[in-house]
Write a structure and sequence with these properties.
Layout: E1 4-5, E2 13-14, H1 26-30, H2 43-47, H3 120-123, H4 133-138, H5 143-157, H6 166-176, H7 185-206, H8 212-236, H9 245-256, H10 267-279, H11 295-319, E3 338-340, E4 346-348, H12 350-373, H13 380-406, H14 413-437, E5 448-453, E6 460-464, H15 466-482, H16 492-495, H17 501-516, H18 525-532, H19 535-546, H20 556-577, H21 590-593, H22 596-600, H23 602-622, E7 627-629, E8 634-636
Antiparallel strand pairs: 1-2, 3-4, 5-6, 7-8
């Protein structure tokens, strides 16, 4: 059978079916052992001083008997006589320059600093990769450096994504440095994943440091090193040909920590993760359906499922496609927020509480996206259900915030401030998403009003309801709170994932609509002064000035988007207030330096509205545009 090409996707090919050939040596085959396949002698035969004979590779077809085997061991090429280890069989599609006889090292890995489950390094392996604990041990840094990264993971990564059970892992980690003989492959997978995630947090945290430049290359090299080491450990575990819970936990971290709207969202790879989660039946509740009695196991499976659900939702948002996971096809409950302490009391887990509210946000976002991508026009019942879901989410977020504040004595102050600010913004994000995703239904009441046309430009000015505008302003205020630098720089890796570009553009558009609606004959400089002192104008100025760090150390496309935001804000302020305004400036506007007659003349007013109309049109062209980012390799808003 010839290889078939999948229509429309030339880079994927279905390989020809063929019978696998026996590759183990005769001794290992007779004893039904897994052969390490080393040449000229496998590890088992070498340790027991047995003759190691491999099947002949000169003739096609299956082996017929032991007599058909070559009596002479296969000779290795001259250039590969030394340094042979089991790592030589790790797939090398992303590992250029590694020969069959040299030890594979993580620093040899080519490609980006994030992984993909569809990458050749994991998916195109031929045969099984035998675990080599000595090799994995050589990938680890000194204990002092590892301890630093472990501490960074606990303070930066784990609070946001509590996917590993650190209470079980950390005791094994401490014992490991005294005796590494008992370490399992699963332990190495978790440890290397943690080191990689911590290196990402370190890179992002130092990216706002004035001394970042000289260290950036070393930090990138560290990330690439640990992602390569983790991929090797996963390949040794048979992933993704075989999948276990720890493989999915590690893969989620590898896929999530470096993903953002301006980096990459590999929808195909994330879709594969969803399918593997369904293969393990994580979509069915571990207690009510699987009858798992161990509380920690139940908690870990629930957390893992909902983290993958969250990743599916955020990937759908970034790529502007519907989510893969369908409502009604899963019944896994949210993880428990209260855990039993050593004294038998139930205590609030602040990290799980934060995660659950994000999971709830993902559920509502998925419903919004399903409604937006549906072919039928949403009905009144659909709109009512959507508003009810967002209102319920707001109530749940408010209750969660109160629970966290009630337990403030047991929660780190920085995490308490960060988590409550993020939670408070979740319902507002849904309101903004409704506006951006369902713009094809602008005549529906409740979200935004009917479009109005300026008398001096060809641009339609959409007015929004006061409630919706309030949610946009509140969203930016909360972002300014939890995005404050350097206070929250340890969470910068997560803060980058939601960039409020569309919210800023929407508020700028709303501001232009407010100006166009001013009654020129009645209001003069007082109206401009009042507008300049409004919360909307202040929060826009604060956001553009204080969130500029989001445009640093990212892709060219993201820099272009932030450059556009600054340009449009500058143009708006120049027309309305006479000059670019900073948050520290007092209420100075063009009206304060010009006479009422000059400001309100027909010609001057028409010129202002005409220029603002151009800004408005530019906003409409960019507020929800779908652009292909060549550097990131995906579509972005």
């Amino acid at each position: 059978m010839s290889a078939k090409t999948i229509p429309g996707v030339q880079q994927f090919r279905v390989p020809e079916l063929h019978k696998s050939k026996a590759r183990a040596c005769v001794t290992c085959r007779e004893r039904k052992r897994r052969c390490t396949l080393e040449l000229p002698v496998c590890s088992y035969c070498h340790m027991r001083k047995r003759p190691c004979v491999y099947p002949s590779q000169t003739s096609p077809g299956p082996d017929k008997s032991a007599e058909t085997l070559s009596e002479k061991p296969l000779e290795k090429p001259a250039e590969t006589q030394a340094g042979t280890t089991t790592a030589n069989k790790v797939p090398r599609a992303l590992w250029p320059g590694s020969s069959a006889g040299s030890e594979l090292k993580p620093e040899m890995r080519a490609g980006p600093v994030f992984t993909s489950i569809l990458s050749p390094s994991l998916c195109l392996a031929t045969g099984e990769v035998s675990p080599d604990f000595r090799l994995l041990r050589s990938y680890l840094p000194e204990k002092r450096d590892a301890d630093t990264l472990i501490d960074r993971y606990q303070s930066s990564i784990h609070p946001v994504v509590p996917i590993f059970d650190l209470r079980s892992f950390l005791p094994h980690y401490e014992l490991f440095w005294d005796n590494d003989k008992n370490a399992s492959l699963e332990f190495y997978i978790v440890l290397l994943t943690i080191l990689y995630a911590a290196s990402v947090a370190e890179f992002e945290e130092m990216s706002i440091d004035n001394q970042f430049g000289p260290h950036s290359d070393a930090l990138v090299a560290k990330m690439k090193y640990y992602v390569g080491a983790t991929e090797i450990a996963l390949a040794m575990h048979g992933f993704p040909t075989k999948v276990a819970l720890v493989d999915l936990q590690a893969s989620f971290i590898l896929h999530y920590v470096l993903r953002s709207d301006c980096r990459t969202d590999d929808c195909g790879s994330v879709g594969y993760l969803v399918r593997l989660a369904q293969l393990l039946e994580l979509q069915r509740d571990p207690w009510s359906y699987h009858r798992i009695a161990d509380a920690r196991d139940v908690q870990q499976r629930r957390i893992l499922w909902w983290q993958i659900y969250y990743l599916d939702c955020t990937t759908a948002l970034s790529t502007r496609m519907p989510p893969i996971i369908v409502e009604g096809e899963h019944d896994t409950l949210f993880p428990a927020e209260y855990t039993k302490s050593g004294t038998g009391d139930f205590v609030l887990d602040a990290h799980v509480t934060f995660a659950n509210r994000r999971f709830g946000w993902a559920v509502v976002c998925s419903r919004i996206l399903r409604l937006a991508f549906r072919l039928q026009t949403p009905s009144d019942e659909d709109w009512f259900a959507l508003r009810r879901d967002i209102d319920n989410l707001a109530l749940q977020c408010s209750a969660a915030t109160q629970r966290l504040l009630d337990n403030a004595r047991t929660i780190h102050a920085d995490w308490l401030a960060f988590s409550t600010a993020v939670i408070s913004s979740l319902a507002d994000r849904c309101h903004v998403l409704v506006d951006l995703s369902l713009q094809k239904h602008p005549d529906h009441e409740g979200t935004f009003g009917n479009p109005e046309t300026s008398s001096v430009s060809d641009v339609q000015l959409r007015t929004v309801s006061p409630e919706f505008e309030e949610s946009q302003i509140h969203l930016l205020q909360q972002y300014l709170s939890y995005g404050s630098m350097p206070k929250n720089k340890r969470y910068l890796w997560e803060i980058r994932k939601f960039q409020p570009i569309q919210t800023i553009l929407a508020l700028l558009r709303s501001l232009i609509a407010d100006i166009a609606c001013l009654d020129r004959g009645v209001h003069s400089s007082e109206a401009i002064h009042a507008l300049e002192a409004s919360v909307k104008v202040r929060v826009l100025a604060d956001a553009v000035q204080n969130l500029g760090y989001l445009a640093d150390h990212t892709t060219p496309l993201c820099k272009q988007r932030w450059s556009l935001v600054k340009e449009l804000k500058h143009a708006t302020w120049q027309q309305v207030f006479g000059r670019p305004q900073s948050p520290q400036d007092p209420g100075h506007s063009a009206a304060s330096t010009q006479s009422d007659e000059s400001l309100l003349s027909d010609e001057a007013w028409a010129q202002i509205l005409s220029e603002l109309g151009k800004v408005h049109q530019k906003i409409d062209e960019n507020i929800s545009v779908k652009i292909w980012d060549n550097d990131a390799g995906h579509y972005t808003l």
